[in-house]
Design goal:
2 domains; 271 residues; 8 helices; 44% helix; single chain; Nucleoside Triphosphate Pyrophosphohydrolase; 434 Repressor (Amino-terminal Domain)
């Protein structure tokens, strides 16, 4: 081996070592961030380790100054225990930023919704986990006692701080109005089953996780009677492509710059 080749090889090795150290440092920083800023946190190392089913020592080593390597299996366990569908969250800066922006937007919607009179609140609003079957059954029972004749499930889908909205066709009931992906809850269908089905049918997107119940509001149905819309914050497996079947347009809108929506939806997203 020539002297030049030896120097070049040493430089390449040094560069690779530097990249590995940088990756470990970034991973450690992301672990610390998610422990302290996750919507259900903050978590201690012990609590997160228990939740993910991994050892506390493994997480502590990963967060240390040297940053021990974590296996993909461990990263997947930690991500899924926190409701993060995109495991690249810990490895890719863009995904990391996108997921954090979604959390921040949901938290802002939650704070605004608490102040908004257009949307009725419930205990589930304060819960950051997937609503329990008992809680959801309670919502349906309350609607029945209130004389509500129709139930609708709606999804707040967020990507990069923007909310997915769909425009109703001109000839439809409330034609031209923009709305959240939503649809009728069929007989013998649960709220979450309807939520997943309608979102897939109207947008082509698959819900990966239902993160939180945001509240509900009532409106007059197209055939008379009262319809109650239950709204949930969700995460989709992929945010594209959006494929329409019942609407004529879609857009990702910032809550501060919404197209024409109902006052109830505006109250949900902006107040």
């Amino acid at each position: 081996m020539s002297h030049h080749q030896g120097v070049h090889g040493a430089m390449a090795a040094d560069s690779l070592d530097a990249q590995v150290r940088a990756a470990r440092t970034a991973l450690a920083a992301r672990l610390r961030y998610v422990r302290h800023h996750h919507p259900e946190g903050p978590f201690t190392l012990a609590k997160l380790a228990e939740r993910a089913g991994v050892s506390k020592r493994t997480l502590a080593s990963a967060e240390s100054a040297d940053g021990t390597n974590l296996t993909m299996g461990t990263l997947v366990k930690v991500a899924h225990s926190l409701g993060i569908q995109r495991c690249a969250y810990f490895l890719d800066e863009e995904v990391f930023a996108q997921v954090n922006a979604e959390w921040e937007t949901l938290e802002e919607l939650r704070r605004r919704q608490v102040r908004g009179p257009a949307l009725r609140t419930a205990e589930g609003l304060r819960s950051r986990a997937t609503p329990s079957p008992d809680f959801l059954a309670g919502l349906v029972g309350e609607a029945q006692r209130d004389g509500v004749t129709g139930l609708v499930a709606a999804a707040v889908v967020i990507s990069a701080g923007r909310v997915l909205l769909l425009r109703r066709r001109p000839g439809d009931f409330m034609g031209g109005l923009w709305e959240l992906p939503s649809g009728k809850v069929e007989d013998s269908e649960t709220l979450l089953a309807a939520l997943r089905r309608e979102t897939a049918e109207e947008t082509g997107l698959t819900i990966g996780a239902v993160n939180r119940y945001l509240g509900h509001f009532d409106y007059a149905g197209s055939r008379g009677g009262t319809t109650r819309q239950f709204t949930f914050a969700v995460t989709v497996e992929k945010s594209e492509p959006v494929v329409l079947t019942e609407h004529d347009a879609w857009q990702w809108a910032r809550p501060a710059d919404l197209p024409p929506v109902s006052e109830a939806v505006r109250g949900l997203l902006t107040r």
